[in-house]
Specification:
The complex is a heterodimer of chains A (117) and B (118). Chain A is mainly β and 117 residues long. Chain A is built from no helices and 11 strands. Chain B is an all-beta fold. Classes of the chains: A mainly beta (117), B mainly beta (118).
């Protein structure tokens, strides 16, 4: 059973460019969350997708956008890259039970390391 | 807003010894979940242990146990019989238990780097 897979594992971009990161959730999971982990920091919540809609969003600018596909996979897009966007981007998947999310267990991928030069 | 604080950036423990990692949090909610995650060099976040705030009993998973002090808003992790494979970054995290679509968000602390001396 494949866990959460993310691609690519590493990416180098220059300021002002746009980037797309991809995530395939664990088999059977329907909810995907994205986190940004800067060097030496804990992950920070970007947003969550369920039923192809953004359900919750953290304190990130509109340059950060996402999408969820019918097969539950997800993309994170970042426009107009800044040096400060350099970080590890983690995807986590879970399964909602009865529309509620109080008790689901999150499974994380190994992340995409984004470097902005 | 909830906050999670891990004030120790680094800790070291001798193999086979016991180590305790500290975490404090701040919230106005009464029902929530607390977690400890391990992040090895592979970068994947691995759930170590979970505590439900309404439960008095401290959670235990094999060599890992917590000391949950709800009134003090403290949530420490004790690792017994430390092994070389325990070396990693450890993150404390909080999640609300409110029955809304917004309760899946995890709030993490800054983490602590644990090294294990052979």
């Amino acid at each position: 059973d494949a866990g959460v897979t993310q691609s690519p594992t590493h990416l180098i971009k220059t300021r002002g460019q746009q980037v797309t990161l991809r995530c395939s959730p664990k088999s059977g999971h329907d909810t995907v969350s994205w986190y940004q982990q800067a060097l030496g920091q804990g992950p920070q919540f970007i947003f969550q997708y369920y039923e192809e809609e953004e359900r919750q969003r953290g304190n990130f600018p509109d340059r950060f956008s996402g999408h969820q596909f019918p097969n539950y996979s997800s993309e994170l897009n970042v426009n107009a890259l800044l040096l400060g966007d350099s970080a590890l981007y983690l995807c986590a998947s879970s399964l909602r039970t009865g529309g509620k999310t109080t008790n689901e267990k999150l499974f994380f991928g190994s992340g995409t390391q984004l470097s902005v030069l | 807003a909830q906050t999670v604080t891990q004030s120790q950036p680094e800790m070291s423990v001798q193999e086979a010894e016991t180590v305790t990692l500290s975490c404090t949090y701040d919230t106005s909610e009464s029902d929530y979940y607390l977690f400890w995650y391990k992040q090895p060099p592979s970068r994947q976040m691995i759930l170590v242990i979970r505590q439900e705030a309404y439960k008095q009993q401290n959670a235990t998973e094999n060599r890992f146990s917590v000391n949950f002090q709800k009134a003090a808003k403290s949530f420490s992790l004790k690792i017994s019989d430390s092994q070389l494979g325990d070396a990693a970054m450890y993150f404390c995290a909080y999640r609300s238990a409110r029955l809304t679509g917004a309760n899946s968000k995890l709030t993490f602390g800054k983490g602590i780097t644990l090294s294990v001396r052979p």
